[in-house]
Amino acid sequence: MANAITSRLGRLAVNSTSFFLCDMQEKFMKTIRYFDDIVLVQQRLLAAANTLNIPLIVTEQYPQGLGKTVPTLDTSKAKGIISKTDFSMLVPETEALLKEIPHVKSVVLFGIEAHVCIHHTALDLIDKNYEVHIVADAVSSRSMVDRMYGIERLRQSGAFITTSECVLLALMGGSKHPQFRSIQKLIATSAPETGLLSKL
């Protein structure tokens, strides 16, 4: 009973979490709303993943035509960078990587687009009993309407909607964590609001 309650609360722990970065590619730079701002937020998340040794899985949608992940995002320590044509990140190559990290129970998901690839990935992960945390200030779409209602749709499906700072501090659990100072430096300046407070 206690485990079921904990699961519903959406607690995050370093030793049972993976980060998923979805399709942050060069050809999307000019079409995705607040692209530069969400990159800044994602940089914090990737730096935290490196510091905390949280496994990172990255996908690229048809990179032959849409380009590689933007170079401002450091994916050098990713467990895998997977090319795909499906909307969902949960292609066979990703599932194979997840089998190598069976301790992972929670996935922190960020990237683009909120109503397409983030949406399909989250549903597939939830269907496989992963706890999914959508980082609202690190996801976007070409349209703010699609972004906002895409996020709301995921909330209805059982994903936890959160922010980058909330994720990082949840992983710390308190100031006694040995990496707290390093994470504190990442959030010393508030993350950009990435249009979440703007009118549709």
Offer a quick outline of the entry.
The chain has about 200 residues and is an alpha/beta fold.
Count of beta strands: 6
As a percent range, the share of strand residues is 15-25%
Radius of gyration: 16 Å
Q: Kindly state the percentage of residues in helix.
A: 25-40%
Structural description of this entry:
- Helix 5 (117-127) links the parallel strand 4 (106-112) and strand 5 (131-140).
- This protein has 200 residues and is α/β, with parallel strands linked by helices.
- It has 8 helices and 6 strands.
- The model has no long low-confidence stretch (mean pLDDT 94).
- The chain has helices spanning 2-9, 35-52, 63-66, 92-99, 117-127, 144-156, 164-172, 180-186; strands spanning 17-22, 56-61, 80-84, 106-112, 131-140, 160-162.
- It starts with a helix and ends in a 14-residue tail after the last helix.
- It is globular and about 45 Å long.
Write the layout of secondary structure elements.
Elements: H1 2-9, E1 17-22, H2 35-52, E2 56-61, H3 63-66, E3 80-84, H4 92-99, E4 106-112, H5 117-127, E5 131-140, H6 144-156, E6 160-162, H7 164-172, H8 180-186
